[in-house]
């Protein structure tokens, strides 16, 4: 899988899907030579053109060789200051104030498997599933080293990269920038695709031409954020969901990040990604190390869907861990939009009765069960049950749910603290704060300083004590504001530039301790919905609440964008009440259900107030989801139509089971149109020679609050060969209602 040719200096990482080639030149410099479809052997059919470029200086050792300049070489992990004027991958300030360094190749090592990263989430693999190349670079002064790590997986179109900085000298240095990866492309014929948004409007797709000069997106919020996602793709113009070259980059990181691209004067492209260097300053004392987060690099010749499926597979098989990695996720009901803070045991038990009757599997008690929490003004940090609301405590409501055949779950927000809390009164120094300046508030709350070991210990003990006190099966871990006044009273002045990074490292330390102590619990991460939806969190918690916005129309965009990188099984998706609490829209119960089935299905409304007709429909939807759940959660996912294309009025998603025997097709049309053409859906990923029988069909339903009506069954029982479904396609019947949603289920004969 990894070879090194000493005569040419070529490192070749290869499997059946992808090749990644580096070259050591002149025994010093590491160049990027190729990344793309797998090739048998790299013999340099496209050698680098050495040209005398004006204003591109030569290193001192090559003063008279005017065709050799770092300013034009396709470098693998570039510095700045020796003649390369493009974006650097790293910047180090040494004790004498200089930021000029010169790292040359020192050694390399190739090993089976994939080592973990100290204190960080990262992809994992057995020795027969991957190989790892580590290249050690040494500064010519001899006091600093960088280790670049590359892992190629046996069955994945993925390269994992990271960098580790080591201070082997006697003086401290400041690390001002430390990218997880850098790469140079030979041209700039790309479009830049990223995921942007805001709270309740996460992960819309933006695709723009790659421009000359520098472009950047990132987060300065202390978290990966709703506003931008730690992901970038460079796509060739004309690339579609199913065709064209795509180069995708995703960080296994939950903190601030940056992706930068630069098209320079000669038309080449440099891309760099990692921790955001805005305000970043990490002091490396002698014998200390700094490890960058991991970057997952995906190449796809099969368009955006090919990239997405590669990311989905690496997340499911090499990021998510533990009991729930391959376990079917339960259908839940969350009490938040049903009761908000106004609940007691009687209300929760009524909700449990109704949930059991409808066939649901998990009852989740959201915010308001602890301290004196009757609104969002107080009690965060005081993780003690409110016995005025729950007279029998958490154990009482948990055992009550269990007695009805339901699992029981609980909401926490452990990283936050209310000013009106016993914890804050006891430890005001535990808050992120800048001396002599007032603190900013979000939702009346402040942020705990997770850089402090005593804060980490408190959270682990406080949360652990609750989890030990009752039979709890599920935890929703929330994070409802971003960082401000990111200053730690526990760190010396010269290390304050480390605070935001140390906050995330502290979070990871907490999550590792808690999730390993309670391996039977299903953890779901949340940050006001999708404000921290990243591979770093999925390493500890196998699913994420996708968005606080539960409107089905909005969710078409949110879930389509999220699926660019993350599989449906990672997405929490619930049916909520209408008019919707976020946007006031009225959609049919069926549209809300079909949309939510394309994720971890559940309900977030007062199911006890549903009509008998609505409850009957919920039972139908729940029973159907249980039949289709393995395919919907762990099958291959295809975006046939996206809300980002054309007028954005249509969306179609397809799922194919792991064994290829079951297929689920969903189609949504937001607004009805006069004189509209008949839509044909062409399926994909089928066996062209196999016959597929239609076993399930849910036609569109009007948005009227009367949920009765006949169900069309004309297609059920009909069979079609795979080639016809893929090449000729299926027609969707004429649509005369807004917010239409259809579902078809197929079984291979």
Description:
The protein is α+β, with helices and mostly antiparallel strands. The protein has three domains: 2-319, alpha-galactosidase from lactobacil brevis (Beta-galactosidase, Chain A, domain 5), CATH 2.70.98.60; 332-545, Alpha-Beta Barrel (TIM Barrel); 641-748, Sandwich (Immunoglobulin-like), CATH 2.60.40.1180. It has twelve helices and 38 strands. The strands form seven sheets. Strands 6, 7, 8, 9, 11, 12, 14, 15, 19 and 20 form a ten-stranded antiparallel β-sheet that branches. An eight-stranded parallel β-barrel has the order 21-22-23-26-27-28-29-30, surrounded by four helices. Strands 5, 10, 13, 16, 17 and 18 form a six-stranded antiparallel β-sheet that branches. Helix 3 (345-358) packs parallel to helix 4 (393-403), helix 9 packs parallel to helix 10 (589-597) and helix 10 runs parallel beside helix 11 (612-634). The longest helix is centred in the C-terminal third of the chain and has 23 residues, at 612-634. Residues 29-285 form the Glycosyl hydrolase family 36 N-terminal domain. Its EC number is 3.2.1.22. Residues 650-744 form the Glycosyl hydrolase family 36 C-terminal domain. Pfam families: Glyco_hydro_36C (PF16874), Glyco_hydro_36N (PF16875), Melibiase (PF02065).
């Amino acid at each position: 899988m990894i070879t090194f040719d000493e005569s040419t200096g070529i490192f070749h990482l290869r499997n059946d899907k992808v090749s990644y080639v580096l070259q050591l030149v002149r025994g010093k410099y590491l160049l990027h030579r190729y990344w793309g479809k797998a090739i048998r052997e790299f013999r340099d059919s496209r050698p680098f053109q050495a040209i005398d470029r004006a204003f591109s200086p030569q290193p001192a050792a090559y003063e008279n060789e005017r065709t050799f300049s770092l300013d034009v070489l396709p470098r693998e992990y570039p510095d700045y200051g020796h003649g390369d004027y493009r974006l650097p991958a790293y910047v180090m300030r040494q004790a004498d104030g200089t930021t000029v360094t010169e790292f040359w190749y020192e050694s390399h090592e190739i090993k089976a498997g994939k080592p973990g990263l100290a204190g960080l989430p990262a992809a994992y693999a057995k020795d027969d599933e991957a190989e790892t190349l580590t290249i050690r670079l040494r500064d010519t002064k001899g006091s600093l080293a960088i280790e670049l790590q590359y892992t190629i997986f046996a069955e994945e179109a993925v390269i994992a990269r990271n960098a580790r900085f080591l201070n082997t000298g006697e003086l401290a240095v400041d690390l001002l920038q430390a990218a997880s990866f850098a790469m140079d492309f030979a041209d700039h014929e790309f479009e830049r695709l990223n995921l942007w948004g805001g709270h309740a409007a996460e992960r819309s797709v933006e695709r723009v031409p790659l421009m000359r000069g520098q472009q950047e997106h990132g987060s300065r919020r202390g978290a990966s954020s709703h506003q931008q996602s730690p992901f970038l793709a460079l796509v060739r113009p004309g690339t579609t969901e199913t065709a064209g070259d795509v180069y995708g980059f995703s960080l296994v990181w939950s903190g601030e990040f940056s992706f930068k691209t630069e098209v320079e004067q000669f038309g080449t492209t440099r891309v760099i990604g990692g921790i955001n260097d805005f305000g970043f300053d990490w002091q490396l004392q002698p014998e200390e190390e700094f490890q960058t987060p991991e970057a997952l690099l995906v190449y796809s010749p099969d368009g955006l869907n090919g990239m997405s499926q590669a990311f989905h597979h690496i997340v499911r098989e090499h990021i998510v861990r533990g009991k729930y990695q391959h376990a079917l996720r339960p259908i839940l009901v969350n009490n938040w939009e049903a009761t908000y803070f106004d609940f007691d045991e009687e209300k929760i038990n009524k909700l449990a009765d109704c949930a059991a009757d409808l066939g649901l599997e998990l009852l989740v008690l959201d915010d308001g069960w602890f301290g004196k929490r009757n609104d969002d003004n107080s009690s965060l940090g005081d993780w003690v049950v409110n016995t005025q609301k729950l007279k029998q405590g958490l154990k009482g409501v948990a055992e009550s749910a269990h007695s009805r055949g339901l699992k029981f779950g609980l909401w926490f927000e452990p990283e936050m603290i209310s000013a009106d809390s016993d914890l804050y009164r006891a430890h005001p120094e535990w808050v992120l704060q800048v001396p002599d300046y007032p603190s900013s508030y979000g939702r009346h709350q402040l942020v705990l300083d997770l850089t402090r070991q005593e804060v980490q210990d408190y959270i682990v003990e406080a949360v652990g004590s609750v989890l030990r006190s009752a039979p709890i099966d599920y935890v929703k871990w929330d994070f409802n504001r971003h960082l401000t006044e990111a200053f730690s009273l526990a760190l010396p002045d010269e290390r304050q530039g480390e605070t935001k990074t140390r906050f995330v490292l502290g979070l990871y330390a907490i999550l590792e301790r808690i999730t390993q102590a309670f391996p039977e619990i299903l953890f779901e991460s949340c940050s006001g919905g999708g404000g921290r939806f990243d591979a770093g969190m999925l390493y500890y918690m196998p699913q994420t609440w996708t968005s606080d916005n539960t409107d089905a129309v909005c969710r078409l965009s949110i879930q389509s964008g999220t699926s660019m990188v993350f599989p449906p099984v990672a997405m929490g998706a619930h049916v909520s009440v209408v008019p919707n609490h976020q946007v006031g829209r009225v959609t049919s119960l069926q549209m809300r259900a079909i949309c939510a089935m394309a994720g971890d299905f559940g309900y977030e409304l007062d199911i006890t107030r549903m009509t008998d007709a609505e409850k009957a429909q919920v039972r139908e939807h729940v029973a159907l989801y249980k039949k289709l759940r393995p395919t919907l959660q762990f099958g291959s996912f295809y975006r046939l139509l996206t809300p980002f294309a054309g007028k954005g009025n249509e969306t179609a998603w397809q799922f194919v089971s792991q064994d290829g025997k079951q297929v689920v097709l969903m189609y949504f049309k937001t607004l009805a149109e006069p004189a509209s053409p008949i839509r044909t859906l062409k399926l994909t990923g089928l066996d062209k020679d196999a016959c597929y029988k239609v076993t399930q069909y849910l036609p569109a339903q009007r948005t009227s609050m009367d949920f009765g009506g006949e169900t069309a069954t004309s297609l059920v029982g009909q069979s079609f060969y795979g080639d016809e479904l893929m090449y000729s396609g299926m027609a969707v019947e004429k649509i005369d209602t807004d917010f239409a949603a259809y579902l078809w289920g197929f079984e291979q004969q």
